[in-house]
Amino acid sequence: MPLPCIGLLWMPLVAPLSASVTDPSATPLAEPLVAPTLAVAAAQDVLYGPAAGEYLLGFAANYRYAKASAPASNADETEVFTGRGTVGLFFTREHEAGFELAPSYIGTELGGSNFDLYAGGYYNYNLWTSPQANFYAGPQIGFLYTDPSGSDSSTDFSWGAHIGLRYWIDPSVSLSVEPRLSFTSLDDSRGGDETVFDLSFGITFKL
After folding, report:
1. Across the chain, how many H-helices and E-strands are there?
2. pLDDT at residue 1 greater than cutoff 70
3. What is the mean pLDDT of residues 124-150?
4. Please, is 12 exposed, middle or buried when counting C-beta atoms within 10 Å of its C-beta (0-12, 13-18, 19+)?
């Protein structure tokens, strides 16, 4: 076969190969799967909850049962729903301290009513069991102002302890449940020493 004919037959075989090398629109070779790996790493770097130096604002609704040791006309067994607001500072991811305010209006079994306002400080040690969940526990200490109907108001020392669980539904928002036990020293005319159990359900926001 003459050489020009051989050249004509060879060109259709070489042309597609050269086009794939020189044409930018040609299908590229498979690239390494880097993007998904980086996305997974970025997701793992998301920090749920406060870091050191950040604040936490909380609101909770409480169920409370209280029983006085020396029942009086306006101090006996009570059940009440109340609220509580907190502001806490995280010194580290584990150590938290803050201030809380809890007003309540209480109707008693024997009649009458009380307006209570608790104000005090608290400390929490936070145990992170997963990136989105942490247990916390610690003491609280403060003062309870009471203004019962038909009696003089007073301010009394109150203290106790609590434990709770926060689940972070978002890096800045968590839902919480917290049982706590409080003790308040009252005189006998207002029921004597009071023991209070609270079970609160709340929501917190990282500031």
Report:
1. 2, 8
2. no
3. 93
4. exposed
Structure tokens at 2: 């003459």
**Distance between CA atoms of 170 and 89, rounded to whole angstroms?**
19
Please give the angle made by the CA atoms of 12, 15 and 16, to the nearest 5 degrees: 100
The tokens 């108001």 sit on which residue? 153
**What ranges do the domains of the chain cover?**
55-206
- CATH for 55-206 is 2.40.160.20
Cβ neighbour number for residue 106 with a 10 Å cutoff: 20
The overall average pLDDT reported for the chain is 79
How far does the chain reach from its first CA to its final CA, in angstroms?
Answer: 85
Beta-carbon contacts of 37 under 8 Å, excluding residues fewer than 6 positions away, are none
In Å, what is the CA distance from 8 to each residue of 4, 16, 20, 125? Answer: 6, 14, 20, 83
Return d(Cα 6, Cα 23) in angstroms, integer. 26
